[in-house]
Amino acid sequence: MTALAMLAAALLDAVLGEPRRAHPLVGFGRLAHAIETRLYRDGRMAGTFAWCLGVLPAVALTALASHWLTALSATAGWAWSAVVLYSAIGHRSLGEHARRAETALRDGALDTARLAVGRMVSRDVDALDASQVAAATTESVLENGNDAVFGALFWFAILGAPGAVLYRLSNTLDAMWGYRTPRLARFGWAAARIDDALNFIPARLTAATYAVLGDTASALRCWRVQARQWDSPNAGPVMAAGAGALRVRLGGPAPYHGTWETRPVLGEGAAADADSIAAALRMVRNGVRVWIVVAIAASYAWRLFHA
Fold first, then answer.
1. pLDDT at 1 exceeding the cut of 90
2. What's the CA dihedral at 159, 163, 167, 169 to 10 degrees?
3. 293/3 Cα distance (integer angstroms)
4. What is the model's pTM?
5. pLDDT surpassing 90 at residue 24
6. Residue 153 half-sphere exposure, CB side, CA atoms within 13 Å?
7. Cα 134 vs. chain centroid, distance in angstroms?
8. Closest to 77 in 3D by CA, of 176, 18, 161
9. Which end of the chain is more exposed for a tag (fewer CB within 10 A), N or C?
10. Which residues are CB-contacts of 29 (< 8 A; sequence separation ≥ 6)?
């Protein structure tokens, strides 16, 4: 049932995309902002309590609803799980955002491409040339392939609907609080560390998926050599393996808040372009198919073994 719920959620996402109104993550973002406003203190304990207040009640309510609906009807429990997972993944949305930048680059509309990638990344996009826009978009596709798709699928497979909620809300709080700024370095410590822990296995499975679906030798070589140079312990393997699999150069200097920051180079081969974005999207899409096929095969194997 778990594997079929994964398939149903992926199909719902492909057909419907993200809810245009009343998206659960938008509502959670507002709740998190209210919690931060009321509970903010420059300390780890305050941030940890804020994280618990934001995430744990939602996980508990999801678990109770899953238990009650499954007891009522196996079909109701299955449908609930599929809908929860659908709300936790953003595969189609990722593609829609990235393709806007890809299309603009192909049309030679650099300003439009900058505007599109500015909705995906936090760097100063006005300073980017066409290749840098393509690289930023490709990086976002690779990293969000893990954060918005594979990570949620992994924790759903492990813990069901509560696991998907735990992962996605934790990832959202990391995106809101997990910055090493003077204001958030201590308050966001728990959000950042918990997200790192939840992403440790999914990130490496995502990197392995990219390696299998692209230039495997290059992906493994870049993962081994370059991943540890990246400042994030989980984004490093994902982006290094993804860049290697695509045979494209990513990373390198990027502008943030008016200053060009030095970043390691990831991958190898040609500079990024519109084709790199398309190839990254195709790799994530094929990865979702592989994960679902593996989940279904594992489910049937488990049933045969325990028959």
1. no
2. -170
3. 8
4. 0.94
5. no
6. 32
7. 19
8. 161
9. C
10. 172, 176
Residue-range domain boundaries for the chain: 2-305
Token pair for 145: 């392939």
3-state secondary structure 165-192: HHHHHHHHHHHHHCCCCCCCCCCCHHHH
Q: pLDDT tens digits, residue range 76-112?
A: 999 999 999 999 999 999 999 999 999 999 999 999 9
What's the pLDDT tens digit per position in 111-166?
Answer: 999 999 999 998 888 989 999 999 999 999 999 999 999 999 999 999 999 999 99
Which residue shows structure tokens 């049309």?
Answer: 107
Cβ within 8 Å of residue 292, ≥6 positions away: 3, 6, 7, 10
The Cα–Cα gap between 293 and 304 comes to: 17
**Per-residue tokens: 198:** 């939840």
Convert the pLDDT of each residue in 198-223 to its tens digit.
999 999 999 999 999 999 999 999 99
